[in-house]
Write a structure and sequence with these properties.
The protein is of the alpha+beta class. The protein has 6 helices and 9 strands; from the N terminus they run βββββαααββββααα. Strand 2 and strand 3 form a beta hairpin. It starts with a strand and ends with a helix.
Amino acid sequence: MIIEEEVLILKEVAYKENDKILHALSKTKGKIQLLSRGCKKNNSHLISVSQLFAYSKCILYKTKDMYIIDSAELIDNFYYIRKNMDAFFNGNYILELISYVAQENDVDYKIFNMTIGLLHSLSQFNKDFDKLTAAYELKLVSMLGYKPDFCHCLSCGTNIKIDSIFSIEEGGFYCPNCVKFGNGIKMTYNEILTLERILKSKFENISSVENINSKILNLIRQFLFYYIGKSNFTTLKLL
């Protein structure tokens, strides 16, 4: 069977003398493995599409164990990510994160498109990489079905309009009147408003979101890691 598919390369593994096995996120088939034959040869037409961060439109053969790249057209390699160390490390963390989260045949084109959008922003920005990564983490965990409620008290349901306690386990806030029902991280009302802005902002507008402090960044990451069940990502050590 021959198919056309958009893919993002998450990991490359040397295979035989001139080949690579590529771990990729696809737009319509979830995470897949690709065999790129001869891509390590200097004259190979598959060199550019067989590297980390390569986003391409591929013609693939389906075999029993994996897909084989017949031909491919590079859409973007996010070249400028490699020109900035902070962008590069954040980008690698995102690839490692989505590689862990994505599953074979678990299709979510919105997550695919969001990941491409994040990499595009990382390649265009020269600052705010931690903001971009935090926005991706928060949007990702929400898309996975664990969207936090920043607006209402978990216990009484009233609108949050004052400093409150965020529960990682419950995915929301307890107002001061109901805090006895749960433990968590105390956040100021301004920090709560900032969390809501991060969740709703597009990546290209994230620089306009002010007052994103380390407390907010840590809360988002703790929340993500709690729900995906993993925190020891190798690239975080580099960051």
